Amino acid sequence: MTTRPRPMDVRPMLDTLPIGRDAAAVRTRIEAMERVMEGLFTLPGTNRKLGLDALLSLIPVAGSTVAAVIGSWLVWEARNLGMSKVQMARMFGNVGLDWAMGAIPFIGAVPDFFFRSNTRNLKIIRRHLDRHHPATATIVG
To answer: What Cα–Cα distance (Å) separates residue 61 from each residue in 6, 34, 41, 56?
Structure first.
């Protein structure tokens, strides 16, 4: 008996994620998580990506809290990379602002669609990795 493939099956992607603590493994994991949270699919008729973060915002308070916990994991990975407390505070500020906006019932999904805390935090981490671990840099073409 064959099963139909699900439209957004992330299991193959998760099976290939490295589990090491080295900078290259961390970069791969956080980029994959940012893609899940902010860019799972493109809205039809637009060029705008939508991810789990915006979808969770449709669930009042609890959805925003779950998204904030996942966003906090990115900050934890940043701590493991040895990033400064200022950088991590900025990242927690992004997560906190995203949580506060997303906690507003139903209306919170709108600002969450435009304010992408995980993408902002990924940029902060990438800047750190490019400066301190240049061998992990990937060329996007």
So the answer is: 28, 21, 23, 9
Residue at 41: amino acid letter: F
pTM of the model as a whole: 0.80
Q: Which residues pair with 49 in a beta bridge?
A: 42
C-beta separation of 109 from 54 below 8 A? yes
DSSP assignment of the chain equals ---PPPTT--HHHHHT-----SHHHHHHHHHHHHHHHH-SEEPTTSS-EE-HHHHHTTSTTHHHHHHHHHHHHHHHHHHHTT--HHHHHHHHHHHHHHHHHHTSTTTTHHHHHH--HHHHHHHHHHHHHHHH-GGG-----
If we measure between CA atoms, which residue out of 57, 126, 122, 69 comes closest to residue 95? Answer: 69
Instruction: Give the pLDDT confidence of 33-79 residue by residue, as tens digits.
Output: 999 999 888 888 888 888 998 888 888 889 999 999 999 999 999 99
How distant, in Å, are the alpha carbons of 19, 79, 116 from that of 39? 22, 24, 10
The pLDDT tens digits of the residues spanning 45-56 come to 888 888 998 888
